[in-house]
Design a protein that fits this description.
The strands form twelve sheets. The protein has a 22-stranded mixed β-sheet, with no helix packed on it. The chain has an eight-stranded parallel β-sheet with strand order 23-25-27-29-31-33-35-37, with no helix packed on it. The chain is about 15% helix and about 25% strand. With about 750 residues, the protein is an alpha/beta fold. Among the domains are: about 90 residues, Ribonuclease Inhibitor (Leucine-rich repeat, LRR (right-handed beta-alpha superhelix)), CATH 3.80.10.10; about 70 residues, no CATH class. It is found in: Membrane. Belongs to the RLP family.
Length: about 750
């Protein structure tokens, strides 16, 4: 046998390897995977970043395409990741032919329509994430056929119906994420078969019914249970407390009732507990406060009762969030609370707490939100901590002056001191915080003096409420400006003030001592009221925010005078535009610029010294309904322009209205009567009949009453005579009884 040299052998090996590589790159299987993915590409109707348009090309290997991972041995597609590409499209049935696929992730796109059943052919699938898309309809029952699936993310879609019971067949499942859909009904008991389950997120659905005990019997590995914002009722089952590895438990904002079992203390690894906004009853189990691993405790807005105790917080050194608001708790603030040096959020509002706030509050140097409003707290102004963003001590029995240390709060955003007995002046340095302050409420105290002058310079205030004090001074910019019932005086129309009030929507300066002419330049800058605002499909509220999981309407308790009534609001729609300058000493004419405040809903100029109105121009608006008959009483009105609106019904007659021409009303197709050529029918005139009788037929009205009174007097004398002479006549008695 002839010997073969080393060099030819090496060259042969390299040549063979090259052929093998070429064959691998052009293998039929890889070409098949490529064709499947090109079908998916064809179903993409919108690719704003051209990621697939440019990159998914037949000129390059599919293993080099964006979002594609191939196996190292067989060079087949094992992972498809198109997440967060802003794609719009549908899922083709051919995708189920990628038989080696283990990872499928298309979350945070706009895929829609139904899902093809052919996806069940992906029998190697371990990770499936269709979250935050636009899939709708019922979730298919065949999702229970992925035998190797470990993670299933279907959150943020439009799935309806019940959660498929077949999901209980996914014996290897560790993470089930279905939040932010529209699932209804109970949590299927078959979920209890998922013995490997670690995460269960079902938040923000419409789930109802009770938590069945059997759901948690075999979930010994469960670490996260989140059922926030559903309609689940009943009691918390004891079987839940067998899940000893639970670190996160949220039943926030449901309809849970009954008492919280003391066995909750068995969850010794728990870090986050949210049971707020339910109907839980009884006393709060003390065992909760023995779980030293807790970082967040949310128990607020329930029907608890009882007392706080002195060593309540001794075992919670890591606590950073505490919500015990609206829990009907009595007693004094426990001194042990001030051992929680990591505390950032403290909600104790709306309870029955009493006594003063201990000076040890300054130990909580990390505190960002401090809320003890609506209690019976007494004493002096509680010392603020340096990092505070929100400070709420409203509706208590606190006294004294605002300390100058409040001015060290360089990050303060909300300051709520209303309805106490604070007095003195507002520190001038508080104006230095106007670049961070958004909401300030000082109403119903005993403050006097002037507002800080620098409030009007670079101010970020959205709401300032200082009514029912004795304050004076310059005015800040905001969305809501309430200065009613104070002693402010002087002219509002000051040409030297260059402050723009472009965002103001509600202005109440009533019951003060303002004087001079109505401020034309002020009205000209009210751009939020001057502009048109389209109707919203959903209600939008003014000064609305979500902070630490809680919803706030910072105009709570706001009141306005409208339609002659004092109206109090717990929240205000953004469309609510109010201008109240009543009960002051304004004089002169009503400026024409008021006719350009297109979105104004309430205008109150009563109880001033304003003179006659000579011109009223409300043309080219969107006014609806009838022309008020009261306008005929404006005797000095020389010009009226109501054209190009949507007014209807008869035009009032008499006095100055008899002098106006057609031009005053054109563009209102529903109007009738003089001076228009269109006459009114009987129904149109019904509304004016009452006023016609009050004016033109006043004599007939009085005459009718006179005749009726006279006839009644004669008939009464006759009946009285019969009763006296006949003594209880049976026929008259029966008539009266029938009447």
């Amino acid at each position: 046998m002839a010997k073969i040299g080393f060099l030819p052998l090496l060259m042969f090996a390299l040549l063979f390897a090259t052929f093998a590589a070429i064959f691998s790159l052009n293998s039929p299987n890889l070409t098949f995977d490529q064709s499947v993915l090109l079908v998916l590409k064809s179903r993409i109707s919108h690719d704003p970043h051209n990621l697939l348009t440019i990159n998914w090309s037949t000129s390059t290997s599919v293993c080099n395409w964006i979002g594609i991972t191939c196996g190292s041995k067989h060079q087949r597609v094992v992972a498809l990741n198109l997440s967060s590409m802003d794609l719009t499209g549908t899922i083709p049935s051919e995708l189920g032919s990628l038989s080696f696929l283990e990872w499928l992730d298309i979350h945070h796109n706009s895929f829609h329509d139904s899902l093809p059943i052919e996806l069940t052919n992906l029998h190697r699938l371990k990770y499936l994430n269709f979250g935050n898309n636009s899939f709708n309809g019922e979730m298919p029952s065949w999702f229970g056929y992925f035998a190797k699936l470990q993670s299933l993310y279907m959150y943020g879609n439009n799935f309806t119906g019940v959660i498929p019971s077949t999901l209980g067949n996914l014996s290897k499942l560790e993470k089930l994420i279905l939040h932010n859909n529209d699932f209804k009904g109970e949590i299927p008991i078959t979920i209890g078969n998922l013995s490997n389950l670690k995460w269960l997120y079902l938040d923000d659905n419409n789930l109802s019914g009770h938590l069945q005990s059997g759901v948690f019997d075999n979930l010994s590995k469960l670490q996260v249970l989140s059922l926030t914002r559903n309609q689940i009722s009943g009691r918390i089952p004891n079987s839940l407390f067998k899940c000893k590895e639970l670190t996160y438990l949220s039943l926030y904002n449901n309809s849970m009732e009954k008492i919280v079992p003391i066995e909750i203390g068995n969850l010794t690894m728990l870090q986050y507990l949210y049971l707020s906004y339910n109907h839980l009853k009884g006393s709060i189990p003390s065992s909760i406060f023995n779980i030293s691993s807790l970082l967040h405790i949310g128990l607020g807005s329930n029907n608890f009762f009882g007392y706080v105790w002195s060593n309540m917080f001794d075992c919670l050194p890591q606590l950073s969030y505490l919500d015990l608001g609206e829990c009907q708790l009595s007693g004094r603030i426990p001194m042990s609370l001030f051992k929680c040096k990591e505390l950032q959020v403290l909600f104790l509002y709306d309870n029955r707490l009493e006594g003063s706030v201990p000076s040890e509050i300054t130990n909580l140097t990390s505190l960002v939100h401090f809320s003890i409003g609506r209690n019976n707290i007494s004493g002096q102004f509680p010392n603020p901590t340096p990092l505070l963003h929100w400070y709420d001590v409203s509706e208590n029995n606190l006294v004294g002056e605002i300390p100058s240390s409040i001015c060290n709060l360089s990050s303060i955003m909300g300051l709520y001191l209303l309805m106490n007995s604070f007095n003195g002046t507002i520190p001038e340095c508080l104006g230095n915080l106007s670049s961070s302050l958004l909401y300030i409420e000082l109403q119903k105290n005993n403050f006097h003096g002037k507002l800080p002058k620098n409030f009007a310079k670079g101010c970020t205030l959205q709401s300032i409420r200082i009514n029912n004090n004795q304050l004076e001074g310059s005015l800040p910019r905001s969305l809501v400006l309430i200065l009613r019932s104070n002693r402010f005086y002087g002219q509002v129309n000051n040409p030297d003030v260059k402050v723009s009030f472009s965002r103001l929507r509600c202005i109440d300066l009533s019951h003060n001592n303002f004087s001079g002419y109505l401020p034309v330049n002020f009205f000209e800058n009210l751009h939020a009221i001057r502009e048109w605002h389209e109707k919203k499909s959903k209600p939008e509220y003014m000064i609305y925010t979500v902070l630490n999981g809680k919803q706030y309407y910072f105009v709570e308790g706001l009141s306005f005078t409208a339609k002659g009534l004092e109206m109090e609001f717990q929240s205000l729609l953004t469309s609510w535009m109010v201008l109240d300058f009543s009960s002051n000493q304004f004089l002169g004419e009503i400026p024409k610029i008021l006719g350009e405040l297109h979105s104004l809903i309430v205008l109150n100029l009563s109880h001033n010294s304003l003179t006659e109105l000579e011109s009223l121009d409300l043309s080219s608006n969107k006014l609806q309904g009838r022309i008020p008959i009261e306008l005929t009483n404006i005797e000095f009105l020389e010009v009226l322009n109501l054209s190009q609106n949507d007014l209807k019904g008869p035009i009032p007659q008499g006095k100055q209205f008899d002098t106006f021409t057609n031009d005053s009303y054109i563009g209102n197709l529903g109007l009738c009567g003089l001076p228009l050529s269109k006459s009114c029918n009987h129904n149109d005139e019904d509304t004016l009949d009452k006023f016609d009788r009050d004016n033109d037929d006043e004599l007939n009205w009085k005459f009718s009453i006179l005749i009726g009174y006279g006839c009644g007097l004669v008939l009464g004398l006759i009946m009285g005579y019969i009763v006296i002479t006949v003594r209880n006549p049976w026929w008259l008695t029966r008539i009266i009884e029938r009447v």
